Amino acid sequence: MRVAPHTGVRPDVISAYEAAHREVPEELTAAIRAAGATSWTLHRSGPDLLHVQDCARLPAALERLPVDVARRSRTAGLPDAVHDCSGPGADAGPPVVGERP
C-alpha cells in the first residue's frame, strides 16, 4: 500500500527541518523497515511536506517505538502539523491525479 500524508513546516525553521532529516539514524531506518515500510520519501515544496510511504501496513506501529519517540523529540516544533497515523483516515493522503511507471 502507498500512503502520502501531507504535513507542513513553519517557514522560519525550514533549514533546521532539512538539517534534522539529512542524516537518518540507522536505528530509525531499521525500525521503519521493521514496522512494514519498504520506502519512505519526503518531498518539500516551500513549507508543504509530502511523505510518500510504501508499506505492508499503516505505519502507526512506528509511532510507538522508542526510536520514533526520540526522533519526534529531536524535531519537536519544526512541523506545522503532525500526521497521526493511528487515527481515522490515517491512510488518506492527497488524491492521486496521475501515476506513471
Automatic annotation (TrEMBL):
Keywords annotated in UniProt: Isomerase
Annotated EC: 5.1.3.32
Region (Disordered): 78-101
Pfam families given in the database record: rhaM
GO terms of molecular function: L-rhamnose mutarotase activity
Organism domain of life: Bacteria
Biased composition (Low complexity): 87-101
Species annotation: Streptomyces griseoloalbus
Annotated InterPro entries: Dimeric_a/b-barrel (IPR011008), Rham/fucose_mutarotase (IPR008000)
Gene3D superfamilies to which the protein is assigned, alphabetical: 3.30.70.100
SUPFAM superfamilies per UniProt: Dimeric alpha+beta barrel (SSF54909)
Protein name in the entry: L-rhamnose mutarotase
